[in-house]
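ARCHIVE RECORD
Type: protein–small molecule complex
Small molecule: pyridoxal-5'-phosphate
Source of inputs: curated submission
Record status: active
Notes field left blank by submitter.
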Amino acid sequence: MFDDISLLPPDPILGLLGRFRADPRDGKIDLGVGVYQDEEGRTPVMRAVQAAESMLLASQTTKTYQGIAGDPEYNERMLAMLLGEGHVALRDSRIRGVQTPGGCGALRIGAEVIRRARPDARVWVSTPTWANHIPLIGGSGLQILEYPYYDPATRGVDFDAMMSALEKVPAGDVVLLHGCCHNPTGADLTLEQWRELTALTLRVGFTPYIDTAYQGLADGVEEDVAGMRHMMSAVPECVLAASCSKNFGIYRERAGGVYFLARDALRAEAVLSNAMSAARQIYSMPPAHGASIVSLILSDAALRADWLTELGDVRSRIAGMRELLASSLEGNAAGTDFSFVTRQKGMFSFLGITPAQVTRLREEFGVYMLDSTRINVAGITPRNIAPLAAALHAVLADTTA
Ligand SMILES: Cc1ncc(COP(=O)(O)O)c(C=O)c1O
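STRUCTURE (tokenized, with ligand):
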């Protein structure tokens, strides 16, 4: 059976993490994997999560199976967080979905349902996009195509190029959008651009597939999703994949959800039945613990307030490190203006240095980032900024790299 099976290379992001862990140097710096770290370089359990876990442990009476769609209260509270109470999609009962194992589970179930509904639909993803989007969505059998998004010259969104490419997408195809904190570039659409994109979506007739994994890490829990809420109040159909890994800091608990906006309540119910059938074929039902934590935090006023406060601290720490990185790189020998880092959103930025500089940073200075030059800004701390800046100055001064 396994005689001829070949060894596959490690996942690029997790493989880098393995190399970082194996590096014996004391001062090594991990800017690779997309996990929040505090000033001490730790990924803490949030206070509200700890409190919710204690409450759950004390009150839990059974560990029997949950339904395929997960906890109905969790799904309800997630939708209220994602769309805002009273959103037209909720008012009209046009949106239904399932709790999933993380955002990855959400993305895959979303793709499975799209394939059932329209097997020949192609999914258009931004250039670049999160590397795992391709296997997660493409693994369902859907064809993936790309539309232009990031402009390395301006370090922002090339909105004109994006709009002209999307203008030509056939009706019935699917366009994957990042709800906020674009991974890997940190370059987001403005609210005005979301409005223009919504108008284009309505004109052209493609279906938006929105992935939101960082709600609350850019400007605020409400602010970050204003664009996608607008789009979802206007379009007839949409798929929304959400992750609680980052904004609740519960990565390993695998809590997410995928929600389908349909033309009416009856169709939404039919789509839900297909999402449940797809989940049943793959993993049967999602793990309960992470979703129970989220559901409790969202429903308990005190826990929710504390979660929002701590998430605000996370946000300011990231913004502070963006400022610090940009100012520490002023006057670099390459003459690069790094102030763009302060304009980008969420955990990631593209530094835009050369592949040789990325390699030198890793090998000579123990600074780890993805080959694409994506850095996790949350990996920067007041303690490592000086050696990090020194390493970057050194490689930027090297004109041969
Ligand atoms: C853009 C994006 N979507 C979805 C996810 C999925 O997250 P998870 O499956 O860990 O909840 C991630 C995680 O890094 C992400 O960056």
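CURATOR ANNOTATION: The two ends are 46 Å apart (CA to CA).
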